[in-house]
Write a structure and sequence with these properties.
alpha/beta
Length: 123
Amino acid sequence: MPAAKILVIDDDRAVARLLVPRLGQEGHTVQSALTSEEGLRLVTSFGPRLVLLDVSLPDLSGLEVLKRIRALNPAIAVIMVTGNTDPERARAALELGAIAYVDKPFDDAYLKRVVAMALQDRV
């Protein structure tokens, strides 16, 4: 899997503390944001190829952030992550262009496969 810039947008600091080093071990350059506003700034300044985006953020919904990422750069792959499985929300995210919907807590092997798939599609 090619190394890439990955952005994690999640208001739960524990998720960032888990994902940043885990994805970094795969050779990726990873940054994180705790708010949608900070995340959208990093989409522009950091230029990620992949965003792992929480569905529930305190300032904007993950679906709204996904729409804004699509408007800024439709080539960025977006994987939605969530602690609650809502089939309607998952369907909406996929219709808006998310490539996958991953439940928390993360299954390491599955997450690794989804990230690899997302990056492979964007080479």
